[in-house]
Every structure is written in structure tokens, then in C-alpha cells.
Design a protein that fits this description.
By secondary structure, this protein is an alpha/beta fold. 46% of the residues lie in helices and 15% in strands. The chain is built from 8 helices and 6 strands; from the N terminus they run ααβααβααββββαα. The chain is globular and about 50 Å long. Residues 8-14 have low confidence and may be disordered.
Amino acid sequence: MKAIVAGLAKETRAKGWWHSYGDIVPSWFSLYVGLESSATLIRRYDSELIPGLLQTREYATELFRRKNPTMREEEREKLVAVRLQRQNILVRRLPTAPALRVVLSEAVLHRTIPDRLAMAQQLRHLLDVAALPNVSLRVLPLAAGPPLASETGTFVLLDFPQAFGRASTEPTTVYLENITGALYLDKPAEVAAYEHVWSDLEALASGEAESEKMITSILEEHHD
């Protein structure tokens, strides 16, 4: 991982748009944004919250408010702006937008924020983003039972472009975030363990069409 960290750190210092936000973006997360923007495939499982790439402004604002209620509004707005700008990778033309595959626990859809109208807007936004050709959104039903991911919690798998037909420019990397920092794993055994968990999630999760129906049903039942 040291080579990746060094390479990405050098690259992001040179051209990372997020550096214009200064210290509001911690160094450990700045590295992730660089990896995310360089990836060709992003796979992530979320057990508690809607992921940042799929959040609306209102949903993101509420999360940052709960995380640090004493933060100045100006700083919170910068954090929200970074989160929203990250989402541009899903619709960019050059370089080609990455493929995003998301599995969400059904519990995430029921865990509403206080503003129910804003939560309804968030669920509609999920459906809109899921309609993009490079995005796959699947829901893991509670009825499917506990997945292997019960032991991992939320995680991200990042795959990178190949170099002229050779191996990938960077190894597949696992990203794990907590309230004080993050872990970046790229050893073959570590990646293989998370690939196994991801395969289990794909086996248990509902298909895209069924997942869309589930989100729509929750939206109609609780928020309209």
C-alpha cells in the first residue's frame, strides 16, 4: 500500500480539486477521493447509511450536522460541497465514468432523517441515479438473513484501469472508514477475503428491478 499512498499523494497534490477546500478534507480521506476518481470499478456495501456518491444535499447536511453539531455552518457547507462534487465522476465523459455497483441493506432505506420530505427526495434520487447506465443498485432484504458482511460492516472495493493490456496500474484496494480515519488494504489475501464477502452479497441481494420496486414501495408507503 505504501507505493499507492505515495503515488496518489503526489498526484493529488498536483491536480486534486478537493485540495482547494483546505484542511476541511482530512489527509486520510483526501487519499480516498484520489483513489475513487481514478477507479474504473467501485463496489460498495453500506449497512447503515446511503453512500456519499448517492446522497442528496439535504441528506448529507443532516449527517454532518449530527456528526458535529457545533461545527460552523460555513465548514459544514464545504463538507457537503465536497461530497456533492465527488458525485460528478458518475456522469463525467473524460476519463470514462467508473462503473458503480452498490448493495444497500434494506435497513438503510427505513432509517429516515427527521425531515421526511427530504428523505422522500433522497429515495427518489436513489432511483434516478440507479437509472444511469454505469450504476447498479441492489438491496439486501432483511429477510435474506445475516450476510458475511455482518462481520465487515460497510466497505468499498476499488479496481483500477489496465495499462496497455497488462495488469492493472494499481492493485484492487479495500477501503474501510471509521470516525477517526481509514484503512487501505491491498494484500492479495485481504482483497480475496472481501471479494468473497462481496460474492455473498451479490448472491443474497435482490435484482435491480426488484430493488427498484422495494425502494418505490417504501417511498410510497412512508413518504408520499
